[in-house]
Amino acid sequence: GGGKPAGATVPTEMKGPLRIVWGALGSDPVHADDLGAATGLDVAQVASALTQLELTGRAKATGGMHYVRIR
User: For the chain, how long is the longest CA-to-CA vector?
Assistant: First the structure.
């Protein structure tokens, strides 16, 4: 697997759950439930963060509730 993108730094505008979820994403697809388990966040926090990350072009849904980091 590709793991985390090399040299990825957390954007300074990211705070709280958004920052946590973004940090848990990598180049391999991760299921939303696994993100919740890995981060300790609840489903609503993970879903909200993933939506925001998609809207800002920082994450992409790959199907079946799986997500990857894109920048």
Answer: 30
